[in-house]
Please model this.
Amino acid sequence: MHHFSSKEIVHEYQRVIEQFRNTEDKPGRITLFEWDIEYINLSTILAFLDQILLRRINDFYSNNYQPVIMDWGANIGYTILNYKRQFPGAKIIAFEPDPQFVSILRRNLKRNGVRDVKIVDAAVWTKDGTAAWLVEGIDGSKIIDRSKNFQNTVTVRTIDLVKYLDQKIDLLKIDIEGAEFDVIPHIQNHLSKVKNIVVE
Model:
C-alpha cells in the first residue's frame, strides 16, 4: 500500500495554508493530491492532512484485499477516500446523520469516483428512532438532550448498531462526538467479529 511521504504531506499542508492565508474560512472546494474535495471549512482539510495522512491515526493493516470497514461518523468523506485509496476493493458502510455533511459526503465520493460505499444517513445510537442533533457546521455536531434549548438543532434518524455487528468487520472507525460513552457499552457484547477498532 502506498503512503504519501511526510515531505509530500507537509508540502500540501503549507500550500493550503499559503493559498488561504488572506481569505475567509468558508465552504469551498480544493484539489488535494489526487482528490477533488468539497469542504465546510479549512480546518477540516488541515485536520485531514495532519491527522489522517501524516499521523495516520485511522490506519490499520489487513491481509484482506476487500476489508469490511464501518465508518461511524463519516463527516464529508475524507477518511473514506483515504481508505479506498489504500484498499480499492474495501466494502464500506458509512454513517453520517448531519444533513449538511451527508450531502457533501455523497458529492465528494461521486466526484472522486467512489460509487460502491453504502451511506446510511443516520446517527449511530443505542436504539432505532430519532434524536435532536446540534448542527455546528464543524466536527462537533452531535446528538443532544432534547430538553436543552440549543439553537441550530434538527431531528435526525438514529440506528441501533447491534444489527450491523452480525458480520466479520475488519475495521470499525468511531468518531461520534461523545456518543461513544453510550454506544460502546451498548455494543460491547457484540464485538467478537470486529478485528480492529479506532476511536477518535
Notes: Residues 6-19 form the longest helix (14 residues). DSSP finds five helices and eleven strands in the chain.
